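I am still getting used to backbone structure tokens and would like to learn alongside you. Please make up or recall a protein chain and show it to me in full. Would you write everything just below, so we can both look at the same thing?
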Amino acid sequence: MATSRPRRPVAGEPSTVEWYGRLVQRLGGGLAVASLLVAVTSGAALGLAAGPVGASLDRLVTIAAADPATLPTLAAVCHYGLLGVVVGSWFLGLGFILTGFLE
């Protein structure tokens, strides 16, 4: 029984790891951007409701560190939006590592 040799990629063709790296970059970047839009929109609404700039920043930091089960709906949306930015950024960095972009 004859066995075939593994096919070598053509010059310039990305390897499987690079392909997955690009996929993870795109998904992580998309998640980070979408979550950032949600966090900024809901955070701006919360900040405007809080009043002066100092009080607004204190409220947003409190929301980011709080347990989401204890937050009102808009504050929970902002909390999960910030969490999505962190997760998306992590996947974006993982994609950079897989593609060798940081070498």
